[in-house]
Amino acid sequence: MSNSPIKLLLVEDEDDFRETSARWMERKGHDVSAAASGAEALELCAQDSFDVAVFDMNMPGMSGMELLQRVQQDKIEMEVIILTGQGTIESAVSAMKLGACDFLTKPCSLGDLEHHCMLARDRGRLRRENKQLKAIISRSRPALELVGESPSMRQVVKMVHKVAPTDKPVLIQGESGTGKEVVARAIQQNSRLSDRPFVTINCAALPEQLVESELFGHQRGSFTGATSDKPGLFEIADGGTLFIDEIGELPLSLQPKLLRVLEDGSMRRIGSHKERFVNVRIIAATNRDLAKEVESGNFREDLFYRVNVLSLQLPPLRERSGDVDRLVDHYLPVPWHVDQTARDALNRYPWPGNVRQLINVIQRATILADGHDVTLDDLPSEIADCADGDAPRHPSDRGGNADSSESDHGDAAFKPESLKLDDIAKAHVMYVLAKENGNKAKAARVLGIHRRKLYRLLERFNGSEAEAPLSAVE
Ligand SMILES: Nc1ncnc2c1ncn2[C@@H]1O[C@H](COP(=O)(O)OP(=O)(O)OP(=O)(O)O)[C@@H](O)[C@H]1O
């Protein structure tokens, strides 16, 4: 508790008590203004601001309770303590419901009065700090802009505004990079929980055994490495929104636990018997067809119905007419410019990695281009190839046939033996991903690897961005 002086407003009609308390508090170093009635107190509030006010409940004219109501109506910021006589505890409780922070029963010692005023002052300070921090956080949050004017994107924006005000779970489906997380944030920012936590978890990016501990937390000693108690993301997001990305990857063994928390808000940390209750709005996303996952037994039907109360389908970028140009203009820094042939290629390309891929292609082009003009030469070859209407090809086609590789790429010096194994792996993974329209689950199946392995490979390839043929796909 801080010892700094309190700016105090003392409102009490009994002259003796008012004067004695004011003198005592002043002797203790506090800055006291005293009023003998509610009307006088309101006049003082109009001229000055106070940390704490003490209102006597029973005053002739305006009672302490009426004064409190006026203070609330006029949004006067200060902590109010109510002074009551013996046997009027119920009215003290009603005063606290109205916004008083504390009450004291008369007769009370002057030491008690000072102690309660100091507690109230500290509480007020914390409240103000909390408000300031929230304001700072919301201002430092990047402005969310869902770029796109195509009919399908307009429909998405309409849905965002429809589902946002409800507290119901939302399922967002769409290919990788279509903007599922951006849409989830837009829903949260347009909801009544916009100033509450927005917590995210990606079920595919975490090893299976970590997902449970991340979501539900654990008790110290519940497994090797659990050296301290840890709250899970459900507890951290309590009162706010939890975005569960790649929910289709949630291990079957964990699905009943998620179902339970969705049904009645109850959950237990790993290794703990204590039941906890949370109130969290769930927004989930997947690039799998969850209904099919239910049919094939990978996803529980009851959980599917729970998360799929409201659903939103994000169209792939290739189906958003005109949006490629809009996104290019949005992400291209001033004073950069894209020439028409490059623009045609960008518009023809099918964008298997969707908006994320487009952003990376633009960033990469601004690094490679001369001056401020992006031309076909600054685009990855599979995109540049689309300028004349060609479909994208497997990068390793370059080495398959000397003649065709020369005519396709004009690269007579190309030598397959000069390729590094990692380059070939990257090219092949990106090719398969492009063929599967960015669907990582399908791509992983074609490649014969687990989806988590594919994530790790993509992360690695993203580290060597500038060389990646489809470097944007995460
Ligand atoms: N409509 C849009 N307007 C502007 N930027 C967008 C839009 N859609 C997506 N983006 C940007 O594209 C990138 C990828 O978006 P996001 O992470 O939301 O995709 P996702 O569908 O959640 O991908 P994944 O399935 O791989 O998790 C982000 O940088 C995001 O800001």
UniProtKB/TrEMBL annotation:
Key words of the record: ATP-binding, DNA-binding, Nucleotide-binding, Phosphoprotein, Transcription, Transcription regulation
MF (Gene Ontology): ATP binding; sequence-specific DNA binding
Superkingdom per UniProt: Bacteria
Protein name: Nitrogen regulation protein NR(I)
A single BP term in Gene Ontology: regulation of DNA-templated transcription
Coiled-coil region: none
Keyword Nucleus: no
Response regulatory domain span: 7-121
Lineage of source species: Bacteria, Pseudomonadati, Planctomycetota, Planctomycetia, Pirellulales
Positions carrying 4-aspartylphosphate: 56
Region (Disordered): 387-413
Domain Sigma-54 factor interaction residues, every copy: 146-367
